Amino acid sequence: MSPRLLPYALIAPATVFTAALFLYPFLLVAQQAFIGNDGAFSLAHFRTMAEHWKFESALTNTLWLAAIVVPLQLCLALALAQMVTRLQRGRDVMLYIWTIPLGISDLAAGIIWLTVFEQTGFLNSILMGLGAIDEPTSFLGYSNMGTTLLAVVVAEVWRATAIVLVILVSGMGLIPKEYSEAAEVFGAGAWAKFWRVTLPLLKPSLQTALILRTILAFEVFAVVAVLSGTQFPVLMGETYEWQFTLQDGPVAAAYAMVILGISVVSTVFFLRVLRTPEGVRA
Fold first, then answer.
1. In Å, how far from its chain's centre is CA 100?
2. How many of the other CB atoms lie within 10 Å of CB of 264?
3. In degrees, to the nearest 5, what angle opens at C-alpha 83 toward C-alphas 80 and 87?
4. Can you give the pLDDT at residue 237?
5. Using CA atoms, how far apart are residues 271 and 208, in angstroms rounded to an integer?
6. Collapsing DSSP states into helix, strand and coil, what is residue 133?
7. Alpha-carbon distance 156 to 140, whole Å?
8. What is the CATH superfamily name and number for domain 22-280?
9. Residue 146 above 90 pLDDT?
10. pLDDT per residue over 165-208, tens digit each?
């Protein structure tokens, strides 16, 4: 085979896989969303979606979840990654322990935290045992949307911080030690080294972690469904509701296109904000 054709031959299987399992289904979903009942281009399904009383709440809740969960996960993962990289012994063991939630499904994570926050759960038992409350409190439900949001945030942070941690630990491992040693020679402290050396060289890993986690935050579903049912609507939950409960595939496709649009915008934002000049790459 010609050397010029070899790269194309190597990427051909991945290209075929992507086209068959992503591009073609995407085109079908887009067709459902943008084609009306008469077979012509139409935004009728988007109007039906936008006029539904749950859409605004679902969009707001999804954006709030992403705005709260992603920064919390990033800060926590940065702190844990710093701790892991500084360990002389037991680094692999600690990393393994902290990444255990990564192997738990969204549904299982939701069930675990449901046993904590429900009326007969561990949190009520602990508070009653300490004498803080006299009777079980309902933390989840329509009348307690604040604590419901908090429960979802806690569950998501516990479940998905591990993926950010793995990416950041890998990125920190690629930073040459000479940069840190040079900073120490010039009198930089721990915070100065982290802010001036580690973070700038960690931009490619931060970019990957933020894009991945933000997209997944927009697609949160199982944890919310377990902890709140339909009382705390999110975009992915409404997509499922329109597709399987209301049996309206075109409107569900419109929801899917909205999620895709938000994901694309956030991806472009992180690609631009965390763009790394070639001269400062590790």
1. 17
2. 11
3. 140
4. 95
5. 9
6. coil
7. 16
8. MetI-like (1.10.3720.10)
9. no
10. 999 999 988 888 888 878 877 777 778 888 888 888 899 999 99
Q: What is the pLDDT of residues 10-51, one digit of tens each?
A: 899 888 988 888 888 899 999 999 998 888 999 999 999 999
Alpha-helical segments (H) within 4-43: 6-18, 24-34
Residue type, 27: L
Q: Is residue 105 a contact partner of residue 226, using CB atoms and an 8 Å limit?
A: no
What the block records as the tokens of 262 is 């938000």
Between 60 and 231, the more confident residue is 60
Please say whether the beta carbons of 76 and 160 come within 8 A: no
Cα-based distances in Å from 182 to 51, 55, 178, 185:
59, 53, 6, 5
Burial 233-242 (b: 16+ CB within 10 A, else e): bbbbbbbbbb
Contact (Cβ atoms closer than 8 angstroms) between residue 276 and residue 203 = yes
The residue extents of the domains of the chain are 22-280
